[in-house]
Amino acid sequence: MGIVDTRKLVFEYIRRDEEGNVEGINRAVDEVDICVEKGEFIAVLGHNGSGKSTLAKHLNAILMPTEGTVWVGGMDTAEEENLWNIRQTAGMVFQNPDNQIIANVVEEDVGFGPENIGVPTEEIWQRVEESLKAVGMYEYRAHSPNRLSGGQKQRVAIAGIMAMKPECIVLDEPTAMLDPNGRKEVIRTIRQLNQQENVTIILITHYMEEVIHADRVIVMDGGRVVMQGTPREVFSQVELLKKYRLDVPQVTLLAYELKKKGLPIRDGILSIPEFVEEIAKL
Amino acid sequence: MSIILDKVNYEYSKGTAYEKKALRNINLEIRDGEFIGLIGHTGSGKSTLIQHLNGLLRATSGAIYYNGQDIYDEDYKMKDLRSKVGLVFQYPEHQLFETTVLRDVKFGPSNQGLPALEVDLRAYEALKQVGIGEDMLDLSPFELSGGQKRRVAIAGVLAMKPEVLILDEPTAGLDPKGRDEILDQIAKLHQENKITVILVSHSMEDVAKYVSRLIVMNRGEAVFDGSPKKVFRHYKELERIGLAAPQVTYVMNELAERGVMVSTDATTVEEAGAEILQWAKKCGII
Question: Which residue of A35, A151, A257, B223 is most buried, as measured by CB atoms within 10 A?
Fold first, then answer.
């Protein structure tokens, strides 16, 4: 069993009219089976409304399955006594950094989580220090979060999760509101946590360039998992991705278009160095 | 006709400890029918600049002329300016509030005091322009998808028939297809209705594909102003101020460095592809 497992996970919500009569049922997640091993870096892609955020919200028990089961660290999320342990095992980072920061000083914000679960004061400060160092924000510990850039705020939000010592972090479009620099900072931080601290990462995003370092990419459409594989495998299927309202990185598209026009280059090119290498070989 | 900014400066909280120069000596002419991209990292002054263009913020010093008239003249009607320069804020769907899509779009023009029939016509037209079908007019805006909501919000501004349309990151948070749909519709509006469009964006790929002129802001100054090709030639300077060039620009530069004889000017996938194919043909590879 992995750190996160879902078995035939279904989530439905009921639409009602003004009188409260049932108008219809939306199946946002439809029989999803995924298994995430400890230490993996998983990226989840899918268009708006494909069910990826709904899936993510099941991974730390914000939502409960309508049918099927979700296990986080071996714990069934449907059992209420597991709730606190599940949320400590799988932390969540959301899109808007301003909605996630509550304190007036960076280090207090990061300390809020561990304090809430009753960690002794000494250890809180130790965790705050470690987490802020892990995301590269230690020198800002005494700053007001107000004066930070979007990328910095998002890293503080990630430090707040790290201070809970989770085994897994689920990030729901953490870079959607950031400028290019902020995006780079956050993605670099996520990769470092994955590689150095062995934290399992589940990254939901619309930016294809952020996905190329993942161990595995999961593509969702209509609540189902429709593609799964390494970034190279998934991005080799340009037409199929377009059908799912997605995209590929510019360099991948360029290589694909050139190959169609007859240039002998290989499939699934993901990075600029790879592309340059292929062309220089010709 | 045009918008002219003459030595515009803007300072926040002047005379307090938080005093900050948000705009420094901005001189710009925005001509009729241009499609302009405005880029810069967070806090560079982009949003402050666009809020000057429809009078939401008043310059600390300097002048702004709209079609030759000084907008800071005592008898200048700011209200007219605001209906001529339409501003679509970030996440505009957060501003939807009416009970139906149609009513929400009608809110702006009815506030302008137009006759009911005119308001209706404009609302229908605006919704059609953004690709919202008639079957959705009576739905609650909150039943729509993210991309649809955003298009309804844009229609609300279009229904005021602006001469200039300013959009602050209209594609933030949308999936790739939704992003292309919105930008294609904006490009179509620009072409068919000849309105001036100013697009604030964090996506270098998007501005490279759509705009004909790119203005780069840094620390309250307009540091570059020119065609995307010209501006992206300075990609190393852009990186120093927290920006970048489209991925294909890097590809072409690295190829050139490796001795592949291609021009480094490409800023879109199509241009890069054409350039590499030409090189391949010249070398007899295909």
Answer: A151
Of A149, A208, A253, nearest to B42 by CB-CB distance is A149
Residue type, A132: L
Angle between helical axes of B116-129 and B101-111 (0-180°, round to 10)? 130
Beta bridge partners of B31: B2
**What is the C-alpha to C-alpha distance for residues B57 and B47, in angstroms, rounded to an integer?**
10
pTM given for the model:
0.87
Find, in chain B, the residue whose alpha carbon is nearest to that of A45: B175
| B156 CB-side CA count, 13 A | 27
pLDDT band at A226 (very low <50, low <70, confident <90, very high): very high
State the Rg of chain B over Cα: 21
CA distance A262 to chain B (A): 7
- Summarize pLDDT for A87-100 with one digit per residue, the tens: 999 999 998 888 88
Q: Pairing mode, if any, of strands A75-76 and A90-93?
A: unpaired
Check if B242 contacts A (Cβ < 8 Å).
yes
Laid out side by side, the sheet with A90-93 consists of A90-93, A168-172, A200-204, A41-45, A216-221, A224-229
* Cα Rg of chain A (Å, integer): 20
Q: Would you place residue A253 in the very low, low, confident or very high pLDDT band (cuts 50, 70, 90)?
A: very high
CB contact under 8 A, A208 and B176: yes
Q: What ipTM does this complex have?
A: 0.86
The pLDDT score that the predictor gives to residue A146 is: 86
User: Which DSSP string do the residues of B186-206 spell out, in sequence order?
Assistant: HHHHHHHH--EEEEE-S-HHH
Residues of A in contact with B246 (CB under 8 A): 250
DSSP line for B164-179: EEEEESTTTT--HHHH
Q: Is there a contact between B41 and A179 if contact means CB atoms under 8 Å apart?
A: yes
Q: A38-65+76-230: what fold?
A: Rossmann fold (3.40.50)
Q: Which of B42, B173, B285 has the CB atom closest to A176's CB atom?
A: B173
Q: For residue A50, which of A28, A66, A22, A80 has the smallest C-alpha distance?
A: A28
- 3-class SS at B128? helix
Question: From A208, which residue of chain B is nearest by alpha-carbon distance?
Answer: B176
User: Residues A132-178: pLDDT tens digits?
Assistant: 999 999 999 999 998 888 889 999 999 999 999 999 999 999 998 88
What is d(CA B147, CA A204) in angstroms, rounded to the nearest whole number? 18
- CA nearest neighbour of A189 among A152, A143, A163: A152
Residue A143 exposed, middle or buried by CB count within 10 Å (0-12, 13-18, 19+): middle
Kindly state the tokens that stand for A37: 């091993």
A235: amino acid identity, one letter: F
CB contact under 8 A, B146 and A48: yes
Domains plus CATH for chain B?
Answer: 2-224 (3.40.50.300)
B164-168 and A41-45 beta bridge pairing: unpaired
Q: Average pLDDT of chain B? A: 92
